[in-house]
Amino acid sequence: MKEKISQLKADLFKAIAHPTRIRILELLKDGELCVCDIFEELNVEQANTSQHLAVLKKQDVLQSRKEGLRVIYSIKYPEIIDLLGIADKILLQQANETMKTFGEIARK
């Protein structure tokens, strides 16, 4: 059972672990957007954007609804935004540690 849970977590992280998908999630953190708005904002072809959206939707990270001919996407679980925020904090801590190390080297 623990192995299955670990695999499910790995699948979730794998779905998120692409720069374009992270950018999509960051675009959607303030609310839902049409796929047309997402691909314009990303400056990526619509087919490529749609593939990334499909990966996130298959993993149940995103949800979508139709509005006429438009498909509107939103983040299904707000905790995903928390996860990205935690990643930002970790990266900032790592950058601070690196700068501190460079400062120590410069003083030598």
Task: Spell out the key features of this protein.
single chain; 108 residues; 3-stranded antiparallel sheet; transcription regulation; HTH_ArsR_DNA-bd_dom
Description:
InterPro entries: ArsR-like_HTH, HTH_ArsR_DNA-bd_dom, Metal_resp_trans_reg, WH-like_DNA-bd_sf, WH_DNA-bd_sf. It comes from Desulforamulus profundi. One of its GO terms (molecular function) is DNA-binding transcription factor activity. It holds the Pfam family HTH_5. The chain has 108 residues and is α+β, with helices and mostly antiparallel strands. The chain has a single domain (1-77), classed as Arc Repressor Mutant, subunit A, CATH 1.10.10. Helix content is 69%, strand content 13%. The protein has five helices and three strands. Strands 1-3-2 form a three-stranded antiparallel β-sheet. Helix 3 (35-42) packs across helix 4 (46-58). The chain starts with a helix and ends with a helix.
Write the layout of secondary structure elements.
Blueprint: H1 2-16, H2 19-28, E1 33-34, H3 35-42, H4 46-58, E2 62-67, E3 70-75, H5 79-107
Antiparallel strand pairs: 1-3, 2-3
Unreliable spans are: none
Strand order of the biggest β-sheet? 1-3-2
Order of helices and strands: HHEHHEEH
CATH architecture: Orthogonal Bundle
Number of E strands = 3
| Classification by helices and strands | alpha+beta
| Portion in strands | 5-15%
Main sheet properties: 3 strands, antiparallel
* Tertiary shape: extended
User: How many distinct domains?
Assistant: 1
How many helices? The count is 5
- Helix percent reads 55-70%
Give the mean pLDDT: 93
Q: How big is the Rg?
A: 18 Å
- So, the CATH homologous superfamily? Winged helix-like DNA-binding domain superfamily/Winged helix DNA-binding domain
Keywords: DNA-binding, Transcription, Transcription regulation
InterPro entries: ArsR-like_HTH, HTH_ArsR_DNA-bd_dom, Metal_resp_trans_reg, WH-like_DNA-bd_sf, WH_DNA-bd_sf
Domain HTH arsR-type: 1-95
GO molecular function, one term: DNA-binding transcription factor activity
